[in-house]
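Open question from group meeting: does this chain pack into something compact, or does most of it stay loose? Before anyone orders reagents, we agreed to write out a predicted structure and look at it together. Recording both the input and the output here so the notebook holds the full record.
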Amino acid sequence: MKNHIFFTGILLILCTIVFAENSDTKASAVTNEAWGAHSNSDGSIPDDELDERQSALNESEDNDTCAALIIPPADNALLNMTQNSELRTRESKFKGSETLLGVGAGMSIGSIPLFTMWKNSLPDSIVHMGIPIDFGKNELTGDTAALRYTITNSPEEFNVILPVNLSVYNIKNDRIATLGLSFFYTSKQFQSMIFPYLDTLNRRVNIDEKLHFYSLSLEAGYQKAISPAFFSIDGSQKTLFSLYLAASPLNFFKRNGSVKTSVPKNDERIHSVADSVREKFSYISANGSSLSWRLGFTTLKRYSDKGGLETGLFYGGSYNALFYNKGSRIAKSKIFTAENESDKNLSFLQSKIELRVTLLRSIRNTGAEIITHNSKIEDRTE
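Structure tokens returned:
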């Protein structure tokens, strides 16, 4: 394309020069003709002819000057080539260094085996709870109805976590290093009920159990800008490959619950059932550690001297272990141990897909900027 523009410019210049020379020649010819046609024998010009010749000369110069400015139309193929040859791609590049503060939130979906083990340990029948259906029946009072058990709220199969993070970003050229804290909390709830069959007096034992999981991690990340020639996302100033590693000294879970009934104190059968259920639902808590990672792609948008917006899509996982309560290692059986499975120390692997958005604000700028320019691609179509 550059060659086309160069030769077109040369052609226009040559045309202008040629027409300028033609106009000079034509003007000279008109002048000579005008002066030679009516001159005296001694070469002098009569006064009455002088004004007429001067007017003819001026008219000739005006017409030739206009002709010199006329540019002949270019070839149609050349025009089409000029119009269609430029294809542009947006490309941005970091320059300098800058420190920013990032505050973000996200959403992740994945597996947490801790919740799976807990859900498998929950009773699905009154027999599973170790309570016979004729428990506490009284022939003398006529309270002989069989006990029934129903689940009113079962934990979800999927795990949705909403993490938040606070990070410091250091941008240097096309690389970003981050260091920060990441926190998430999630919980699940289980509710069930025990009542006598065909009961009309609202004699119920309401069971409510929850499992809570907290994690606070120290996270370090590295991001490298990707050339638009290989990969880019529309609407972003820069697309980056990102890798994060994290360690969590606070990886805490607790299981608690309540067993309630609203029957009078003289209803011995229902109160006996409630006391028996409380023995099955014991409180437990422990703190452990974890190592985690996540990798993916992030985009930087709206970047300026004040900050920007970062969005990222990641896949990651973590290994959770070393759970202790009051100095004692927590065994897996405290949560759930399947039949014919040997008891071990509690540990588990989890995986997730995460979407995260971070708002960036500049706190120290040493001349950093993001330079955006258009890369020209030649259209080589003949």
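Observations to bring back to the group:
Residues 1-8, 14-39, 63-91, 373-382 have pLDDT under 50 and may be disordered.
DSSP finds five helices and 13 strands in the chain.
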